[in-house]
Amino acid sequence: xLAPAPCRPIRVLIADDHELVRAAVGGLLHRQDDIDVVGxxxxxxxxVAMAAELEPDVVLMDLQMPVLDGxxxxxxxxxxxxxARVVVLTSFSDRRRITEAMDSGAVGYLLKDAExxxxxxxxxxxxxxxxxxxxxxxxxxxxxxxxxxxxxxxxDRQREVLALVGAGxxxxxxxxxxxxxxxxxxxxxxxVFRHIxxxxxxxAAVWARAHGIVDDGPKRVxxxx
Length: 225
Hints:
This protein has 225 residues and is of the alpha/beta class. The chain has helices at 19-30, 44-54, 70-78, 95-103, 116-127, 135-146, 156-166, 171-178, 182-196, 201-210; strands at residues 10-15, 35-41, 58-61, 85-90, 108-111. The N and C termini lie far apart (51 Å).
């Protein structure tokens, strides 16, 4: 019997404007057999360009960078034909920055004082589709929900998508009705699931109906977003 083919290493792009941070994190990742550092970006614009060219699996994204900040860079990476999974790696732990990052499309949020093993575990978790969160970040998100309804953290477009899901409209139909791509619909739903605490489309539909968030569908095509 043939031995199974080895798994491909996780392709990681590091985006940080501090050379020492890039070198330190890159050195840690280079020592891992299952991780391949494919690029180092010094600002958000460079991170987007490198993500488009190199197609990494995971991007470690600092938030405060020149030219283009990490929030907008994350949003643009999410709109790429082959989007990477962005994990924020920053020193900011305030609620506003956390919610901005998650709303922009980040799948995880880690702090720079994390232990090396925590960072490695976060990268591996993101690569297989889960959302790594520093425990302090998780607490901040819980507090954010406690201080408002789950939909308070959603954009107008995300609430619109949720309402259509509640009405039983398929993703492709939602894309057509709102004038956005199916990939953008899926990205919006990922954010919605996280904020309302569900894991799939059916649960989101049930949640929307239970909370009276249901739409019969817009009568015209909306703006692209």
